[in-house]
């Protein structure tokens, strides 16, 4: 059996999910089952669910083909070695010589492990994606709650809107003093003296009487 026929026979490394012997209705039933379980909500989650469905479908097919290959080889070993009457010895000999059929038992297990890893990788990616979406949604809800809790009340908003606007204080210059009108520089004139012209004559103080003469 050539490598090309082996890929078409088992479909383990083929890009085509369904082989001619596969039942499309059964495959769609598997896709619907996983879709109902994971409930994809966008294109990314739908793609991940489809990857899990493909890996699960190939894994089921691989195990079915492995069971069929072992059953056929057991019949060959039983005819070749009639002395093997113990079923355990017969199965052990069939597994050891399974490579005679074109695919060793180790190769079957490697294909199985690869498909299991493919399913687990898609599932982990889906889990991380959903956890990230939940964290973002939780953060948005927290922001909305904070805005609702610390938002001003309607009465406070109406009071702010109806309150009269206060005019800013403007410094008003004091009117000039009446005495400043006489001079252009605005400085007040010196106060006029309250003494009249008649009082401008200097006053003489009376002299004290001379002491009396001695006798």
C-alpha termini separation: 181 Å
The profile of the biggest β sheet is:
none
Structural class: mainly alpha
Average of per-residue pLDDT values = 77
Number of helices: 6
Helix fraction bin: 55-70%
What report would you give on this structure?
This protein has 215 residues and is an all-alpha fold. The protein has a domain at 18-153. The protein is built from six helices and no strands. The protein has helices at residues 3-10, 24-38, 43-80, 87-96, 105-150, 154-162. Helix 3 (43-80) packs across helix 4 (87-96). The longest helix has 46 residues, at 105-150. The N and C termini lie far apart (181 Å). Mean pLDDT is 77; it is low at 1-14 and 193-198.
Short structural description:
The protein has a domain at 18-153.
SSE arrangement:
Blueprint: H1 3-10, H2 24-38, H3 43-80, H4 87-96, H5 105-150, H6 154-162
